[in-house]
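Retry 2 of 3 after timeout on previous attempt. Resubmitting structure tokens to design endpoint.
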């Protein structure tokens, strides 16, 4: 039987992970299957039981998506440094009866920005909107890329300050509220990591934060020109992108971790890209 992998989440209906990993497997000639599992929300321990049943049936690894990333992290026997720092897992590997947790969201995002979009972060002014799980995973990889300044804003200012304090003390990282942005000038890169786009909303970001020569990145994908990207475009921003590249890059990291071979991401990104307008 071929090696079995799956993505687990709820709702999982619209996941692109089976398609992405299927294309990776074809390209690298790996004998594996990859399915989607609708994870149980109730009772509390049902998620762990579902993962264990998958392992018992011969499963080798899983991707984990909302809302199970914390539960996956909690049930692991071993956790990578990246998973520890994010406090969440988006990938699991099952080896010799042990569950190993990883988190490739942050590196996937960074790789998409720096490699695919050719926007090295070193020396740049970078702004991240939001303080949810996505931001948690992104802060350390971003700081490691040595931006001149990394500002993270959230409506709930206490939440973003707590997050920043948990990740790193001082340095290039500054946490604040949207009201503080007016006085901060333009940023080379603005990343929308809030969930606002999922409901068609716009975070209260002043258009003055965008630099025409810079970039705006929307973590959501396949939603075309979200209010955030429209604001950036109207501000004359040259490079605007959604999160399809991040989705494929984090998948490639997991694939390489499981299979020991790194797939080409560009053809898969091209295939999944929905034009912004
Ligand atoms: P996750 O599941 O990724 O952890 P979350 O914890 O629900 O997500 O966080 C969602 C993020 O989007 C939060 O930073 C939230 O801001 P608040 O903490 O201030 O609520 C942010 N968010 C959601 N809708 C938003 C909107 N319309 N404008 C600005 N920020 C928004």
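Retry 2 succeeded. Sequence:
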């Amino acid at each position: 039987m071929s090696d079995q992998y799956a993505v687990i989440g709820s709702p999982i209906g619209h996941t692109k992970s089976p398609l992405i990993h299927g294309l990776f497997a074809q390209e690298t000639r790996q004998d594996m299957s990859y399915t989607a599992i609708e994870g149980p929300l109730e009772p509390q321990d049902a998620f762990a039981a579902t993962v264990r049943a998958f392992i018992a049936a011969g499963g080798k690894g899983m991707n984990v998506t909302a809302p199970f990333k914390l539960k996956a992290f909690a049930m692991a026997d071993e956790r990578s440094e990246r998973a520890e720092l994010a406090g969440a897992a988006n990938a699991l590997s099952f080896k010799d009866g042990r569950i190993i947790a990883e988190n490739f969201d942050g590196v996937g995002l960074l790789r998409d920005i720096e490699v695919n979009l050719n926007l090295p972060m070193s020396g740049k002014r970078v702004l991240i909107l939001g303080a949810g799980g996505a931001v948690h995973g992104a802060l350390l990889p971003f700081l490691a890329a040595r931006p001149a300044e990394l500002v993270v804003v959230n409506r709930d200012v206490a939440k973003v300050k707590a997050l920043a304090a948990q990740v790193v003390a001082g340095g290039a990282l500054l946490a604040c509220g949207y009201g503080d942005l007016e006085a901060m000038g333009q940023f080379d890169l603005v990343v929308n990591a809030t969930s606002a786009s999922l409901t068609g909303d716009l975070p209260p970001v002043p258009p003055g934060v965008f630099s025409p020569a810079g970039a705006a990145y929307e973590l959501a994908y396949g939603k075309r020109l979200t209010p955030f990207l429209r604001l950036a475009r109207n501000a004359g921003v040259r490079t605007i992108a959604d999160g399809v590249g991040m989705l494929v890059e984090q998948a490639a990291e997991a694939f390489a971790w499981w299979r020991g071979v790194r797939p080409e991401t560009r053809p898969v990104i091209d295939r999944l890209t929905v034009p912004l307008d």
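Attempt log closed. The chain is about 35% helix and 25% strand.
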